[in-house]
Structure formats: C-alpha cells, structure tokens
C-alpha cells in the first residue's frame, strides 16, 4: 500500500501542468502555450520558451497550499491580505476566511526545485540542527506536543536535553537519494503475487494523481475492474481502477497529500476493506 508516493521523475514531474489545468488553476491560454512549447516535457523543459511558460504556471499557483489546494496556505501573508477589489461587498471578502489568524512565519522551508519537480534538486538534505517550517503547514501544535517532556517520556523518546527539540523536517540526518524510478520494483512485487494498492488524494499538488494514474496504466496490466466510484455511507468517496496481478489504483475525492489527515473516515474505510481482503 503506497499513498501519494513519489515514484518516477518523468511521470510525476510531467503530471503537474495537466493537474493545474484540470483543477482550473491555470487558463486555457497558459496550458496551450505550455503544450506547444514543451511538448508534454514539463519535468525537463526543452527550450527557453517552455521554461518561461512554466514560470507562468508557477506564478499562478505559488500562493496555494501545495499539499492540499483546498486548504489555506498557513503563514502566507500575500493570500491573507485579501483582494484589492473594493467594489465587492465586505461579506464576500470574508467568505472562507478563518476566524483564527494565520501568523506569518519567519522561516519557510520547502523544496528548492520548481513545483513540477517532485524531488529535491540537491543530492543531500541540509545537516542543520535548526528546525524548518514546511511551507503552508501548521506545525505549531505538533512542535509543542512533541517537545513536551511528559509526552516524550510517555512515548519513550529521549528528552530534549539528549536528543534536541523536535522540528518538522529538522535535517539532522544527512543522506543522499539515488533510488531512481520505483516502477521496476512495483512490477517485481506484483509478479511475485503481492497485493498492491496505490492511492492518491485528488487535491494533492505535490504528487499529483495525474502522474500516479499515468504510471499505473503504463504497467500494461489488463483492466479487470473498470474505472468506477467507490462509496462510503452511500456517498461517492473517490474512484478506482483494478488490474490483474492484484494491482489497484484508487483516488480519494477531496483529499490532499496526507489522506488520513484530510479525509480520515474515507481513509479508514478503504484501509480496512483492503486489509481485510474485501472489495472497495
């Protein structure tokens, strides 16, 4: 079972622009310009014209929460300041505004690579002991909880005086990633008879479902359960397609990168059915 997983540079990287267009985040003009100048090669731009059009895409989506485009971008002062259109009623400006202010973070950490790349551009992670704040993610509660000495004792974690404070993406472990494409591993495991479930939250912009759907189809397995909705409490919770070799691709409607966090009921439902060997 793999959820919203980075799998292959080309499939994942080339999925971003079609995802942005399909979600209505970029105009038809921008999308068509990207198609003409890039020829579908968004991960590795083949020309300066392609690069310039991709910059327009990035500019259009830069204020969004990359992990869930439906959620506010925590700490994004540009999106919090509201629209400059003063002709609209005040009530319209307040639609969707959280009552609790989203404080501006002084340190924002995110991948240095462009939105359409799902891997870091640098070979290794920073070795700094300082904490980073992942862009758009509200980590204040987690930081406070995991740095509480009573909590650390209860979960058998070393005290702050020994292990240091917990931070999201702390960078204490420096390593290099060289795994390449994961597709051959999926082919190998399915050929050995293992059941595989690949799932995606359909509002995750970090690892768009469009890329995951594309690489799962590229395996060439015969479709045995054609694209259909799957249900929870008599409501459509998402869509799936089943293949031979016990291989299934499943999409969760309205979920972000962390599916269990954004759609916990639906996540528990398909987890349970799959683990119990029941139809989803």
Which class do the helix and strand fractions yield? alpha/beta
| Main β-sheet description | 5 strands, mixed
Q: What is the CATH architecture annotation of the domain at 183-275?
A: 3-Layer(aba) Sandwich
Total helical elements? 13
Task: Outline the low-pLDDT stretches.
Answer: 77-116, 118-129
Strand order of the largest sheet: 1-2-5-4-3
Give the fraction of residues assigned to helices: 25-40%
- Please state the average pLDDT score: 82
Order of helices and strands: EHHHHHHHHHHEHEEEHH
Kindly report how far apart the N and C termini lie.
Answer: 14 Å
Which of globular, elongated, flat, extended, rod-shaped describes the shape? globular
Beta-strand segment tally: 5
Assigned CATH class of the domain at 183-275: Alpha Beta
Q: Strand content of the residues, in percent?
A: 5-15%
The rounded Rg comes to: 21 Å
CATH-derived topology of the domain at 183-275 = Rossmann fold
Keywords: Carboxypeptidase, Disulfide bond, Glycoprotein, Hydrolase, Protease, Signal
GO molecular function: acyltransferase activity, transferring groups other than amino-acyl groups; serine-type carboxypeptidase activity
Family: Belongs to the peptidase S10 family.
InterPro entries: AB_hydrolase_fold, Peptidase_S10
């Amino acid at each position: 079972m793999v959820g919203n997983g980075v799998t292959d540079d080309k499939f994942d990287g080339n999925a971003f622009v079609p995802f942005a267009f399909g979600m209505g985040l970029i105009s038809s003009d921008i999308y068509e310009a990207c198609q003409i100048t890039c020829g579908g090669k968004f991960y590795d731009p083949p020309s300066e014209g392609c690069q310039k059009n991709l910059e327009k895409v990035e500019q259009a989506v830069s204020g969004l929460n990359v992990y869930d485009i439906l959620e506010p971008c925590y700490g994004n002062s540009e999106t919090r300041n509201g629209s400059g259109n003063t002709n609209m009623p005040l009530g319209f400006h307040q639609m969707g505004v959280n009552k609790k202010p989203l404080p501006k973070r002084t340190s924002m950490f995110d991948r240095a690579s462009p939105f359409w790349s799902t891997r870091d551009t640098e070979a290794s992670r920073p070795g700094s002991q300082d904490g980073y704040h992942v862009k758009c993610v509200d980590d204040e509660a987690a930081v406070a909880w995991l740095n509480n000495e009573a909590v650390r004792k209860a979960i058998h974690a070393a005290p702050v005086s020994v292990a240091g404070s917990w931070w999201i993406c702390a960078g204490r472990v420096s390593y290099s990633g060289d795994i390449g494409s994961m597709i051959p591993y999926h082919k190998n495991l399915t050929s050995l008879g293992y059941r595989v479930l690949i799932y995606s939250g359909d509002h995750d912009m970090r690892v768009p479902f469009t890329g995951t759907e594309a690489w799962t189809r590229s395996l060439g397995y015969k479709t045995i359960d054609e694209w259909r909705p799957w249900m929870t409490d008599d409501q459509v919770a998402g869509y799936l397609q089943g293949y031979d070799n016990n291989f299934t691709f499943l999409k969760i409607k309205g979920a972000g990168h962390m599916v269990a966090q954004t759609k916990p009921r639906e996540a528990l439902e398909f987890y349970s059915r799959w683990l119990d060997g029941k139809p989803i």
